[in-house]
Amino acid sequence: MLEVQNATKRFGGLIAVNQASLKAAAGSITGLIGPNGAGKTTLFTLISGFERPTEGRVLFEGQDISRDEPHIRAQRGIARTFQIVQPFAGLSVVENIAVGAHLRHARRSDAMARAQEVGRRVGLGPELDKSASSLTVAGRKRLELARALATEPKLLLLDEVLAGLNPSEIRDIIPVIRAIRDEGVTILMIEHVMQAVMNLCEQVYVLAQGKIIAEGPPAEVCDDPTVIEAYLGAGAAERLKREKVHA
Predict the structure, then answer these.
(1) When you count CB atoms within 10 A of the terminal residue's CB, does the N or C end of the chain come out lower?
(2) Local structure of 6: helix, strand or coil
(3) Which residues form the ABC transporter domain (predicted)?
(4) Any bridge partners for residue 31, and if so which?
């Protein structure tokens, strides 16, 4: 479904993404993890078209989309959420979702019907007629998810959709994400909540200082000394190993 080939993004002298490659198979949930400032969101901007790679390519369903504008990629079937949720505060929840639905449905009545369907699907049924500004953090996260889902994507890019949620809210939204995949949407997700990564992802890529440093099943990647060092600093893997032995 998606293949990023040796993508590099430079901002002046800063290399935010450095020769990064990853794949997301159709029908899968793939994770992208890494410490803060690793370049994960920048990589998402290259996939979704808000930035173009300085070097490398982005392929979607075998086609090179590296130079396509974001709206063209959306029409092809790529949707994304954003870390900072910014709903249209003057609109209702269902009207916010309809903004996404208008990509496929020109008539307002059709877009609103689609928005109501998607809103119920992500657990916003009772909130649909309320003002978007009245939603809790968890509600806004669901709204961000719904607005992207309303574009009827083939590939959904989730940028820390669980950030800021408490454990029970995370537990509630994990089945929603799994159900989206089960209905045929391929998911690539940036996430710091390892509970979600372990529960949802079949394959995980680890980005550190702009480079992919590990890939594989979540349990395997989380035990990788290189990954532990990237998160916790030099010598951390050896310290943890010693602690396990003494325990």
Answers:
(1) C
(2) strand
(3) 2-234
(4) 189, 204
